[in-house]
Amino acid sequence: MIMRIFQVRVRDGKEEEFAEFFYKTAIPMMKGIEWIVQVLPGAPHSDNRRDFSFVMVWKDLASLKAFVGEDYNSPHIDPAEAELVESRLIKHYELVD
């Protein structure tokens, strides 16, 4: 299984708008993908109101590529979030029991 960690830093002043997208669009979308075994969405902690994240456990690399394409190291971005996000970070790991 592949663990995919996706983090975004929201543009200053766009926190509420991104939070609405995160809760109403991004979380339901990720939870609805059949190849994802587990989704752990992370909302900002009081330390930094601009950082959001997802930890996703994918069935395998082939499933991840089927969803995001061959360049799976590039963040898959919904057009609704593009103007709200200042930066993105994505990492992949083999899940260890």
From TrEMBL:
It comes from the Bacteria. InterPro entries: Dimeric_a/b-barrel (IPR011008). This is Antibiotic biosynthesis monooxygenase. It comes from Ruegeria conchae.
